């Protein structure tokens, strides 16, 4: 059932299957009655009609085109080249790639199974070596060929096997790519690696998994790796969003491992006693007016619909997040392709409609990074990404540890 449903008194009505066939083995169709399906059909029909009228300029604008106050490039200054080469696995739309690039690393290559995500990388950085689609599948690569050509390997293996939304099946989920990641590290033997994931991977439920699949194989490998596990929050790096990530940071040298320090916050959210620069609330960051009825806060966690039950241009998948977006006066569904299109397509509630550029900003991407694919693919890639300012702080901490050792 969709998150924003009103309670229904149709509990006794039988469920009917969708007429649209599943195209993915892990597709989880909605369980709906015929009445509910009809209601959604009418809603979708109305939404399409409104979208058409918006594109034709037939609707009155409620909001001007916004001019953001936050420039995320200020959160992650572009460093001089540091002489280190970075290889990217599971590159998605480029969150970690951008982080390492801005931290001064030379980009060696990216591997990403989704063609449209690889296209984002290729379009933004035509000079990069990008392996997309079947060619980007980490399972088919002869990693040994990269040995001696990579200093730092980074990547965020798919998190669905560990996240609540993905049903937390761990190694039973065919999307689990941690064994492939460990295999790549052992074959390439980089001097350091960064592998990030959802905080659930650090929870008690996956203690055995982490020990058996990640830590022990890398501690027993030749060369062996020494590993830190750090929990980080995007708001501590100036990103106006509630988002936590866990990163495994491994080093071949014990000295570098000892020298590594968890990145210290660069910004502070809502802490008048802190001397750090302030993390903006999301309304301020987007350049929206401060309103008494919509007190400014961090945005709730942006969700990627890419691996969910159906293609969606929404970035929200829970009732509590929907309430937080509503309290902010922001509309997390039907994200528009541009700020201009968002302004021309008023929402029924009067809430501010977000655009792809706004969603990317809330995730910390630089404004110069563009999204060539369809809106659902773009917001899916953005929602899957490491916020670049957070990734930048990790990349800087790795550089510092390597140069101190
Ligand atoms: C959590 S996202 C990574 C996001 C990325 N690190 C960023 O910061 O933007 C995981 C990515 O792994 C990709 N992926 C899944 N299975 C893969 C495979 N077998 N080979 C390569 N990429 C894969 C997914 O398409 C998805 O884009």
Helix-strand topology string: EEHEHEHEEHEHEEHHHEHEHHH
CATH first level of the largest domain: Alpha Beta
Shape: globular
- Extract low-pLDDT stretches: 1-8
Q: Give the radius of gyration.
A: 22 Å
Tally the helices: what do you get? 12
Q: Classify the helix fraction into a percent range.
A: 25-40%
- Number of domains in the coordinates? 2
Q: How are the strands of the largest sheet arranged?
A: 5-4-3-6-7-9-8
Question: Explain this structure to me?
Answer:
The protein is an alpha/beta fold and 405 residues long. The chain folds into two domains: 76-266 and 387-404, Rossmann fold (3-Layer(aba) Sandwich); 279-284 and 293-384, no CATH class. It is 31% helix and 14% strand. The protein is built from twelve helices and eleven strands. The strands form three sheets. Strands 5-4-3-6-7-9-8 form a seven-stranded mixed sheet, sandwiched between helices. A two-stranded antiparallel sheet has the order 1-2. A two-stranded parallel ribbon has the order 10-11. β10 (330-336), α9 (339-343) and β11 (352-355) form a beta-alpha-beta unit. α2 (95-102) crosses α12 and α4 (178-188) packs parallel to α5. The longest helix has 22 residues, at 34-55. The chain is globular. The model is unreliable at 1-8 (pLDDT under 50). The protein binds S-adenosylmethionine (SAM). S-adenosylmethionine binds at residues 90-96, 111-114, 117, 136-139, 156, 158-159, 177, 384-386. The site of S-adenosylmethionine (SAM) has 23 residues, from α2 and β4. GO terms for molecular function: DNA (cytosine-5-)-methyltransferase activity; DNA binding. InterPro entries: C5-Methyltransferase (IPR050390), C5_DNA_meth_AS (IPR018117), C5_MeTfrase (IPR001525), C5_meth_CS (IPR031303), SAM-dependent_MTases_sf (IPR029063). This is Cytosine-specific methyltransferase. Keywords: Methyltransferase, Restriction system, S-adenosyl-L-methionine, Transferase. It holds the Pfam family DNA_methylase.
